[in-house]
Each structure stands twice: as C-alpha cells, then as structure tokens.
Amino acid sequence: MTKSSEIILNTINMSNDHLSAEDILLLLRNKNIKISLATIYNNLQFLVSSNLIRKISIGDGPDLYDRIRRHDHLICAKCGKITDVELEDLKEFFEKNIGVTLLSYDLKLNYLCNDCKENKN
C-alpha cells in the first residue's frame, strides 16, 4: 500500500461522515498534506477493490466513501442525508431464502428524515 493510500484510508476510518473525494481533498489540504484529486480518486478505487473501504453511490450525487465495518444506511429521499444504522446481519437470512452464497451486501433504506418531514410543504 502506498503512503497516499494509507493517508486516505486513515482519513476515512477516522471520520464519522461519509466522505466524497472532494471532502477528502479538503481534509488533507487542511492538514497541509499535498495531494491531487486524481491521486485521491485512483487510491479510492484501489481501496474499494481491496475491500478496505465501502463506496456508496446515491443518485446523481458524488460517490461517498465509508469505513468497512458492517453497517447499513438510511438515506433521506429528499435531502440525501446518510445515517448509519446498525441492523442484524442479514447474510444468513438472504442465503437461506434466495439459495445463493453472498459475498457481501449493501443495504440502503430510503426514508424521509425528521428535518425534511417537518419542512414538508
């Protein structure tokens, strides 16, 4: 793993947010770490393919990156806010009911967050 990959992986693992490549760039620049956006994208692709981070793709927005620990996501259908949610691991349930061996799954639950629900017009 390159030094850039380690820095990006640590940035994602230390964050409580779901970060875009641009978010990572800003965080690293705020720490006076010089890195290009292209380097970040290349390393994100490597980290995802190595199963060291998760990529979250939502609609037309930018891809977001997250820690690999087992969890699922609530996604507000109106504002796009993403919230981590801890649910029972459903791998065994899916395998039993579908009849296949799952390598992994990414559960995204669409909902309306409280802020959007209160501001619904």
Task: Provide an overview of this structure.
This protein is an alpha+beta fold. The protein has two domains: 3-66, Arc Repressor Mutant, subunit A, CATH 1.10.10; 72-118, Ferric-uptake regulator, C-terminal dimerisarion domain (Dna Ligase, domain 1, 2-Layer Sandwich), CATH 3.30.1490. Helix content is 40%, strand content 16%. The chain has five helices and five strands, in the order αααββββαβα. It has helices at residues 3-14, 21-30, 37-49, 91-98, 114-118, and strands spanning 54-56, 64-66, 72-76, 82-85, 108-111. It has a three-stranded mixed β-sheet with strand order 4-3-5, with no helix packed on it. A two-stranded antiparallel ribbon has the order 1-2. A hairpin with a 5-residue loop joins β3 (72-76) and β4 (82-85). α1 (3-14) packs across α3 and α2 (21-30) crosses α3 (37-49). The longest helix is centred in the middle third of the chain and has 13 residues, at 37-49. The N and C termini lie far apart (50 Å). The mean pLDDT is 91.
